[in-house]
Design brief:
Layout (H helix, E strand, L loop, with lengths): L5 H14 L23 H29 L6 H39 L12 H28 L3 H40 L2 H6 L1
Helix pairs in contact: 2-3, 2-5, 3-4, 4-5
Bound molecules: fe (ii) ion (2 copies).
Amino acid sequence: MNTDDPIKRNVEKDSGEELSPMAPPEAYAPSTVEPVAYKDMHPLLQILMDEHKAFVKVLDNFETSLTEWQQNKWIFNNSINKNFKELFSFLDNSTPLHNKKEEKQLFPLLHKRLLKSGEHSGDDPPKTGVDVKEAEHIQVAQLGALCLNFLGLGSRVKDNEDREMIFELAYNQGKEIVEIMRLHIYREDETLFPLAMKLISKEEFEKL
Ligand SMILES: [Fe+2]
Ligand SMILES: [Fe+2]
């Protein structure tokens, strides 16, 4: 990955370690939280996990098309158009609803329980995984808007060199969306949701 890219540097600098798009391989190391099988997850969490699966498919297709688009020297074709469109309509329609479910139903109580159980940072006030996930929701929405704007701008620019430069920025933002979202989903599925099963009772889940 090109770390000389100014946008990437800014995102890295602004977001701190947890939010770094330059996720090291160990970011995907198995969670230290005791795993919970899908079938044993509360239905609310199962729905969120199903939605994650759908999103990962969209992300995979988008990434494939990003690579193809770059290798094609920024020429679009039908499958690139389709996969780009799918990603942005997903970010526009499905992701906000999904995030709202997490933020309104699950995160408030989970955040409290994480604080109570000592699963938090040493900051003042202490931060939990919930704070990180909420920040990532915003970050990805912003990157999506930025990427879409650069795509629109690039398409209108006549000068070849300028257009290539703008498309490369859009490409880098697209790659970041993929990286951040993949890790985000992985951490929710493997760490945050198992913790929710541990810290929130069945009766409490029913009231969420
Ligand atoms: Fe999330
Ligand atoms: Fe999620």
